[in-house]
Structure formats: structure tokens, C-alpha cells
Write a structure and sequence with these properties.
Elements (H helix, E strand, L loop, with lengths): L3 H12 L13 E10 L4 E10 L5 E10 L10 H13 L7 E5 L11 H9 L3 E5 L17 E6 L2 E7 L8 E7 L3 H10 L8 H20 L6
Parallel strand pairs: 1-4, 4-5
Antiparallel strand pairs: 1-2, 2-3, 5-8, 6-7, 7-8
This protein binds two DNA strands through β1.
Length: about 220
Amino acid sequence: MRDLETLKRQQEALARRVRLEPLPHEPETIGGADVSYSRSLRRLVASVVVLRWPSLEPVEEAFVEAPVTFPYVPTFLSFRELPALLQALERLKRRPDLLLVDGQGIAHPRRLGIAAHLGVVADLPTIGVAKHRLVGEYEEPAPEAGSATPLYLEGEQVGWVVRTRTGVKPVFVSPGHRVTLADSLRWVLATCRGYRLPEPIRRADHRSRMRVRKRREADPELWR
DNA sequence: GCGACAG
DNA sequence: ATCTTGTCGC
């Protein structure tokens, strides 16, 4: 694997290009992005789905299968998953006006989680939605769906801890690129439909897993 | 040295 | 992330 210090510098440089600004207008489409992994195939499957807003009906989707070229190292996730995700994005006829990405936005030691990284490289409005905390301090949000508390890192707010379902573990939301802190919370809550994860990400997750399963069934016997 | 640590 | 069976609750 490459020199992590060099990659850190790369992240710091890209982080300077992150812009937290309001969305120019109400989105017509909202996308979801996720990556699954198959041990038996030793492949990553990136999936991007595009939904119409506010109906959330599917518009289109794209997949990309790719071999693993980088190990999972906390805070360097994008060097493993971003290439496949960017390719999937290129396969869409039309990019979404806003993209929710499975992982952190600026809630990252160098303010460049995978959602922020993708946003800067693709120059697209993005929001990070993670199922677990990477960094930051916070107080537990109230148990009711819709409640949220700020996520702080080094004295500044970098995101939110959001209760998307009553009585269920919260998710960690942070702006990626070209959205504000307020936008990140607003659009995550707006796209939730009774599940822990917002619909765009939930569907991207479902589709990438289904892809992995079908690909494995197609191949003879190479399980484990 | 020890614990934490997205997917 | 993935590997795995049953189990609890709406």
C-alpha cells in the first residue's frame, strides 16, 4: 500500500476545496451511493441509484464491479471505494442534483470523508450518512424519530447525530460538498421513510448486495 | 504503551 | 464490509 503520509497530504489539499454552501434550488433528483464487498469474488460492487424528489420513485441506477486495490484503513476509506463509485456515477445518463453517500462527509480527522472526497472530485453536492461514528463528540439525541444533536470535532460542528427511527440507533450525518450543515440534516430527514437509513442509501445498499448475490450464483463453485 | 477506529 | 441461526417484537 502507498505511503499514508502522502495520502494524508492529498486529503488535506482536497479538503481545502470543500465548500459548504446552500443548494442552489430544490433538487429534482436525489441519489444514493454504496459499495458492497464479496470475499469469494474478491470484488467491490459500487451502486448508485437516482430517485425523483419528492416522490422517491426510481429514475435509474448504475453498477460497477472492481477488484480490490487498497485495504480498508480507517480514515483512508475513499482510496479503496471511491474509484468504483466514480465509475458508477459516470455510467448514469444524468447525475442527481444531490447525492447521499454511505460514510462520512467532513466528520473526518482531515475533514475529507468519502462523501466530501467524492463531492470535490465529481463537483457534486453530497452528504455523508454513516452507521457508526468515526470521530467527534456528541450527546445522545432523544429517542424520538427526528431528533438530532450536533457532532463536534476540535471545537467546531462537523455534523449531526440523527435519530431517524424512534428507539433505534442514530446515524451520523455530515455535509460532503456544496451543501450546508442545515441542508445535510434537512435532506436526510426528508428522505427517510420509516427505516434507519434514508431511502436513496437504503436502496443503493439493497441493489449492490443483490448484485453481489446474483454474480456469485452465476459462477460455478468458488464460495468461501 | 493503550484504546479508538466510516466500510 | 462479510460471516452466520435463531429469536424477539411490531
